[in-house]
Specification:
about 600 residues, alpha+beta, six-stranded antiparallel β-sheet, about 25% helix, globular, binds zinc ion
Length: about 600
């Protein structure tokens, strides 16, 4: 029986950041109902307890108030009613992230997981939602969402619908006086929505995104799995991040990363490359994680943590193919691709935690470790994004080598799409070796044992050499040195400048230690994260000068360091150790791409 579930959401008080939600169940169950909010949002693996922002919940039937019983932090129980059950509540929306809800006089944004209580046990029922405009005297707000319109006009306030609760919470909604541009990719209409102040060249952005979208649609094979797609970007002075959905993505980006109408060149600057890489990443997820999923996510259990070891496939492979698509589609140069790849290698090699946790563990423990990083995280954990991307690179190279480029990791993705995505069958935790064998004929059990399930460093230099790339791991020049593409590897190889083995953040009275790396000079001398260094050998230190000051010494020398721990002044004898080879520079082995390199990147 259809229980006719309807929601009405209104940005009722933008100044107080409050949405009001009125829910109606017009044919309520005789046993009464429980309503509950998810405690996490798919794609972001952390318990967030969204229900903490719900206030003033009340219920009525036939105009009479009902007694409401709260069962736990996120669940409300209602008595049986003969006629329509009406539930009203407010949601405080002041979390400016892609994962929750946000409302002020300039815009409103929400994910269904933050605002729509699920009718427990009736999650498969079809749903309708009325989205109301704000009570502002003057506004030009429109709606951007991939939710299906019911009676609403496209971009208009009004009634939308969802097949079930899972569908309802996978289409975030943006409401604002936003910039909108559209393009088609392989016949599928795409919206590009920018919120916030900007002077973006929309024509160029659409042209570049179209190249990426068509590349990915053809990569997995036409037709695309969605009827339309919406890129929603909230623009900030500083910000970066995204969350994938089945027919849209919510992104945050830095204003300076977008291409300007006044740009005189078609050159893709590093910031814009980063933004396009993020768009490419979230778009690839339309297949890989939104439709190809771990068996553990069929269905999502939104009441508690959902443990899987497989995020190295879903985030790692996606992180490999996001930038690879930019170079293979011709958007960025092969030199620029190597620059991005070198920075990924640096980010893995810089964290000693890679020697303590493997990526399958990192995935499993994402809930309490990767998503809850503290000052010790670089020493204790590894990223299934960056190390996962390098494992994908290694697998791609290995499969290509074993099959003389007849097969590659792309064949694995296509098989995953056909056998698992299209059929909506989940991937079992240890099924990847047999899936890769079926897709390519290559046996990778040992390869995965040595990379996915191992904390040993893998031979990334050898993998890259076989693809025509020279890889050099070397000490960093300064703290901001993240490696990159370089034509001067021999000059870099002699770098031996000491550093403290630490990351700093600015502090009013000195240089605050943000991270002390395991085995680094600072940690070995007894300095800790949170300590504020104020002087080195009697000279005042700031975040700006600490690097150059340390580099004026040689490895083996001992410095007198004054630092505050809380309000206590402490003195440390810091012996400068040999710097770690934690920074990657990449170059071409010959002048340009080798035959193997062309097969890989062309
Ligand atoms: Zn991702």
């Amino acid at each position: 029986m259809n229980h006719n579930i309807h929601y009405r959401i209104t940005p009722i008080d933008p100044f107080a950041h409050l949405f009001e939600v009125c829910m109606e169940i017009t044919l309520p169950s005789e046993a009464g109902h429980c309503l509950a909010l998810p405690v996490w949002i798919p794609g972001s693996y952390m318990i967030r307890d969204f229900a903490k922002n719900i206030t003033q919940l009340s219920a009525t039937s036939e105009g009479k108030p009902l007694v409401v019983n709260k069962l736990d932090k996120t669940t409300w129980q209602f008595p049986p009613t003969k006629k329509t059950l009406e539930v009203t509540y407010q949601v405080y929306a002041w979390d400016l992230s892609v994962r929750a809800a946000h409302l002020d006089q300039t815009h409103g944004y929400f994910n269904g997981t933050s605002v729509f209580l699920a009718v427990v046990g009736f999650e498969e029922e079809p749903i309708s939602v009325t989205i109301n405009p704000p009570p502002l005297e003057q506004h030009n707000w429109r709606i951007a969402t991939s939710l299906q319109e019911k009676t609403a006009k496209r971009y208009g306030f009004g009634e939308y619908e969802a097949k079930n609760y899972d569908d309802l919470i996978d289409h975030p909604v943006e409401m604002a006086d936003f910039t909108l541009a559209t393009f088609e990719a392989c016949g599928v209409p795409h919206d590009v929505v920018l919120v916030g102040q900007h002077r973006t060249d929309m024509e160029r952005l659409c042209r570049d995104l179209k190249i990426i979208c068509e590349y990915h649609i053809r990569f997995f094979g036409e037709p695309a799995p969605m009827a339309r797609y919406v890129f929603m970007t909230y623009i900030l002075g500083e910000g970066y991040g995204g969350l994938e959905h089945r027919a849209s993505t919510s992104l945050h980006c830095k204003r300076a990363d977008l291409p300007l109408v006044t740009d005189k060149t078609d050159e893709i600057k590093p910031g814009y490359r980063t933004y396009l890489g993020l768009c490419s990443h979230e778009y690839f997820h339309t297949w890989n994680v939104k439709r190809i999923k771990p068996a553990k996510f069929f269905p999502y259990d939104l009441t508690q943590e959902s443990y899987t070891e497989l995020l190295w496939v879903f985030e790692g492979f996606t992180s490999y193919f996001d930038d690879l698509a930019l170079v293979k589609s011709g958007l960025i140069t092969a030199d620029d691709y190597l620059d991005a790849l070198a920075k990924t290698i640096t980010s893995v090699w810089r964290n000693p935690g890679r020697l303590k946790q493997h990526v399958a563990e990192s995935s499993f423990d994402a809930w309490t470790k990767f998503y809850k990083q503290d000052e010790n995280a670089p020493n204790a954990i590894v990223s299934y994004y960056t190390k996962g991307a390098l494992i994908a690179l290694g697998l791609d190279q290995y499969i290509r080598e074993q099959t003389n480029h007849q097969k590659s990791l792309a064949d694995v993705m296509r098989l995953l799409w056909v056998d698992y995505g299209q059929t909506q069958q989940g991937i079992e935790e240890r099924a990847m070796p047999s899936i890769i064998k079926k897709a390519t004929g290559v046996e990778v059990t040992e390869f995965l044992d040595n990379t996915v399930y191992s904390t040993d460093d893998f031979p990334v230099e050898m993998w890259l050499e076989k693809l025509g790339v020279q890889c050099q791991l070397r000490p960093r020049k300064e703290n901001t040195d993240r490696g990159g593409y370089s034509t001067e590897l021999s000059a870099l190889s002699s770098l031996m400048q000491p550093n403290l083995g630490a990351q700093f953040k600015s502090h009013v009275s000195g240089a605050e230690l943000a991270i002390c790396y395991t085995g680094g000079s600072a940690q070995k001398a007894g300095l800790s994260a949170g300590d504020v260094i104020i002087a080195v050998d009697g000279l005042k230190v700031t975040q700006q000068n600490v690097d150059s000051l340390i580099r004026s010494y040689s490895v083996g020398e001992t410095l007198k360091v004054h630092a505050f721990r809380r309000d206590e002044l402490m003195v440390f004898d810091v012996r400068l150790l040999s710097p770690q080879k934690d920074t990657c520079s990449l170059s071409w082995l010959s002048s340009g791409l080798t035959e193997d390199g062309k097969q890989w990147l062309a």
